[in-house]
Specification:
Length: 175
């Protein structure tokens, strides 16, 4: 079986991980009582390997979300808006996401010393690109965001949280 997780260290500590599982249904049924102890959500996604591919989908989605949120916060600040007020409003509408709810304050404050590290995200995106090359999927936005993560690494942010993409957006903005 393969069983990658989403939710980070906080999800593990609080027992609220999301687990994407690949394997045989009989094996999944056997491990379900144990997984229920530390996961808020888990699902058998298909045969062995399907969990890892689902994790790839998760990472691709997160990359685009964090980049969009970075650009939105930066735009709000450049437009003279109170970014916290803006997020308070838009987080209750169609723009809502886990990233927005859990990372906007630290992004505004430039605090990135927690969460899922840029190095780990780049490793995961490399796995996604290798699979996309095999299966023919186009990942133009994920590839673009991976380049921005490379810029974060150049800023010394290898261990910064993935929400540190906002630092690249800020550094590329006109003052």
């Amino acid at each position: 079986m393969d069983a990658p997780v989403s939710g980070g260290e906080a999800g593990a500590v609080n027992g609220v991980l999301t687990i994407m599982i690949g394997g045989k249904p009989e094996a999944y049924e056997t491990i379900t009582p144990v997984i229920d102890c530390y996961a808020k959500m888990h699902k058998l996604m298909g045969p062995c390997g399907a969990g890892q591919k689902t994790k790839m989908v998760n990472q691709i989605a997160i990359a685009g979300l964090v980049q969009g949120l970075s650009e939105a916060i930066n735009f709000a600040q450049h437009a003279g808006l109170n970014a916290e007020d803006v997020i308070e409003v838009i987080s209750k509408g169609a723009a809502q996401s886990w990233q927005m709810e859990n990372r906007y304050k630290t992004m505004i404050n430039g605090e990135f010393d927690f969460g899922f590290a840029v190095n780990w995200m780049r490793k995961d995106l490399t796995i996604c690109f290798e699979e996309a090359d095999r299966n023919g999927a186009a990942l133009p936005v994920a590839r673009l965001v991976d380049g921005f993560y490379e810029e974060v690494q150049a800023l010394g942010g290898e261990r910064w949280d993935t929400s540190s993409l906002i630092e690249v957006v800020r550094s590329n903005s006109k003052k």
